[in-house]
Amino acid sequence: MKTQFRFALRDIWKRPVIFIFFALQLIVSIALFSYYYNTIQYGSEYVFAAGKLSDHNLTYFSPDFDSGAQRSATPQAQEMLIEILDLQRSGYSMIQSIGLDSYPDMDIVVGLGAFADVYDINFESSSNQGPIVLAGSRLEGLTVGDTIEFGLRERETLTVSSRLPSGSNYITFGQVKSLDDSLLILADTGSIVDFYFRGYDLWQEIIVNITLINPGGAELAEFIIAMREESNFILHPVKQQSYGEQHFLGIFYGSLLYLIFFGIALIFTGFGITANILQLMSSNMREYAIHLLSGAGMRELYARIIIYIFLLVTPPVIISPHILPMPAPPPPLPALVLVSLAFTLLLALVPVIKLSKTDLISYLRSDG
Length: 368
What we know:
The protein is of the alpha+beta class and 368 residues long. The chain contains ten helices and eleven strands. It has helices at residues 2-14, 16-52, 75-87, 115-118, 189-192, 202-208, 217-231, 240-293, 298-319, 333-356; strands spanning 58-65, 91-95, 107-113, 132-135, 147-150, 156-163, 169-172, 175-178, 182-187, 211-213, 233-239. The strands form two sheets. It has a nine-stranded mixed β-sheet. A two-stranded antiparallel ribbon has the order 7-8. A hairpin with a 2-residue loop joins strand 7 and strand 8. Helix 1 packs across helix 9.
């Protein structure tokens, strides 16, 4: 195999410009194809997730601020938030800025109000008092029964009561966020701020992240006006379901068109690579025949071709998903290597079949 690898490198060196040309073509085609594929996948995920919540008729807010105004939550605004989230449970909010001293790199999501009801999060807990702690399905470092120290002003030891089902997620500002690698803490708004300083900016985060459940027109207007007067937040309502239909469906059809275009470009690049390999083989036929007479088998010749294609395909496959900012994280390296191997075998199919049907000995004749 080392010998065939050396021969494949020599084949690359014979025509390095052609090799680099097709590698660059692959990088561009794969990168753009992956980008639009991920965009379609991510948009479909949002439309599906928002569709499951359509019965709640959710409205979230795009915040704006008075120029030069001091943002704060007055006692009246705080009482209104506690009324909506804790007592009426006609909305939910999130806090994502809280960290744990023992796990500084862990993603913490604090769900307030009707967060668990809206996202159908079921849990088991031995106590109905105090925050409920749930670990994501893939969260490492904490498991059921482990404890955490929570709070700054007041500290309390909380126990992880159970794990979330795989695929648990939530929506914030038009984005689907996974909870699989997060620690979810469910709490009441009135109690969560007691763990921190009352002047802390948690109130601002609660306002920005608030989502109302099936709000009436008067109720919505009252909330927006109150937050404007009591906190200097200008909140622009956004219907979650309508946003998904208008925003992501438009992106879906546009991305689908580009996905088809770059898919075709990728196919033509594959045809070009195959033609290049056939030309390379044609120039190497006499050398292949000599190798056979020297004791090499057809498998060694096939391996040489496959290694050449693998060296051409693998760098673009690994590099391409990292070039553009993808809506979703790129696949892990082992998955990319498997994709590269599958792509290599596909491209090697025609050259290997052609080589297997070629009478190599005829190329040793004086007129060959």
